Structure of Fumarylacetoacetase-like C-terminal domain-containing protein:
Amino acid sequence: MKLGRISVPSPDGDQIRIVAVRPDEGRVIDLARAYALGRQAQYATPDAARRLAAAHFPSSMAAAIAAGSAFLDAAHWAVDQAADDASLPIDGLSWVAAVDPPVIRDGLTFPAHMKGFHDRVGGGLPNPQLFKTPGYFKGSTGVVYGHDEEIPYPSYSEYVDYELEMGLIVGAAGSNLTPDGARAHLFGVTIFNDFSARDVQGYEMAMSMGPQKCKDYAYGIGPWITTVDELPSTDGLRGVVRVNGEVWSETTAEGMIYTPEEMLAYVSINDRLQPGDLIGSGTLPNGSGLELDRRLSLGDVIELELEGVGVLRNRLSAEPDKAPWWPEPRPYPFGTPAN
């Protein structure tokens, strides 16, 4: 099943609805409405049917996933009962991020991307530690964007880049998992665009604190999630990057150092996976503009396609997004810095 979230107008303001997506049929199915109609057909009152539907299909995808198998069972039942009466045309919808993750962790596990990155920035070879334990950072959940939402171009950067990744969506809580056990904790896969301010990334990473403003201004998530029953393996999935309709690169999800199951298991060591968490696979080979020596501009439209999922499309803002303040440098108290 493909599951996404849309925003629809209501008398009380815009509401977020979870939908089952049928791209080949050109429609989505409002699951709460379909479920309520199905229950009314079984003699539930309209108010009772809506209460039941709201419990199964809240605005939060993470909260819905947290219900475990009851969520997907209810989704399939709703589609079977009243899909036609709860359908909307797929064109013209207002999408939001496919999931509202409690935590974003973004990995780095495709050696070909690592090598391409280091070749471009002149930073030598990738760190050997990445071949000993999976590497990842944590990103802000407050700046997630869905399909067709505009991405603000941060005014502090002159080099904004995209990154095509698989977004692994956690389906069940768990700690200290093994890779064999972690498979049952994987809900599905979406497209994750780890937008990066490359010029800022260089000096932030040199602080040995991990990325900050070079990453935490936008994360693209969508257009929807494909559940693992429809996408049993991520190995070998094909990807395409288009900018303003031009193909910039074609790629394949091959050669991961660590499998998705191993990544989930590693994250869970003395930590806790939560339903709806997103773990980025790391950028697919040639899945960033940096590797191609190509740069985005204000107003560009980026399309990231992933086999089995769909196309995540976003436009960069036409003008820089200016913040009202930026910190002034402070005196360096340790003599003359090395750099």
